[in-house]
Sequence to fold (248 residues):
Amino acid sequence: MGDWFHRDIVEPGKLPGLLALASFVLTFLVTRVITRLIRAGKGPFGNVSTGSTHIHHVVPGVVLTVIGGFGAVGTGRHGVVAGVCAVIFGVGVGLVLDEFALILHLDDVYWSEQGRQSVEVVILAAALALLVLGGFSPLGVDSLSSDQRQNRGSAIATLVVDFFFALITLVKGKPRMALIGVLVPFVALIGAIRLARPGTPWAKRFYRRRPKARAKALLREYHHEVRWVRPRQRVQDWIGGAPDRPTL
Fold:
């Protein structure tokens, strides 16, 4: 375990990535603590406003992301400056993705049901970053042998097939599996084989004349909702805070 962590995670070339991931996660957690205190009216914190304009923390997040990203590109992957840029970038991304739902809906949905999407995206982004640091290369390129790497035709074919499976998974209404499948092709293959979710482009196109497939997809969706949605929401509420109840 220790050898793997030192070899695949903290080797010099990956240290900025580790710093960016750590600062990203820490920034998100600290931000959520502060926003929950503001929501409860506790502590010295408060919303930042200029006149009647509420300055969301996605604004400084974008600025820090730009500074850290361009700084990292200009300094490479080694040295103290690269580490500092990685931390700045991680802090910026943490602030931006904490308000991902606001960007998606162009509305202040931070404490609404739609606001759960921010927590979900942060968890998914952290998991993907950890996979990359652990040695997974996009589209399964890490699984190629040395002979296959020398054969450009085989490498391109592998990329095309992996992308095809990920695209099918996405069209079937499974964006999480599709995104993870870009790094772990076996996940995309499973998503491409399994039934599509009801109402997705794949289901509308290919299940239109297959009532048994439609019924099976609906039944599977129901069991999925019962089995996973409530536990996932409880985890999201524990991490990011429960959304406001809609007013009648």
User: Anything to note?
Assistant: The chain has a mean pLDDT of 83. Residues 211-240 form the longest helix (30 residues). DSSP finds twelve helices and two strands in the chain. The radius of gyration is 21 Å.
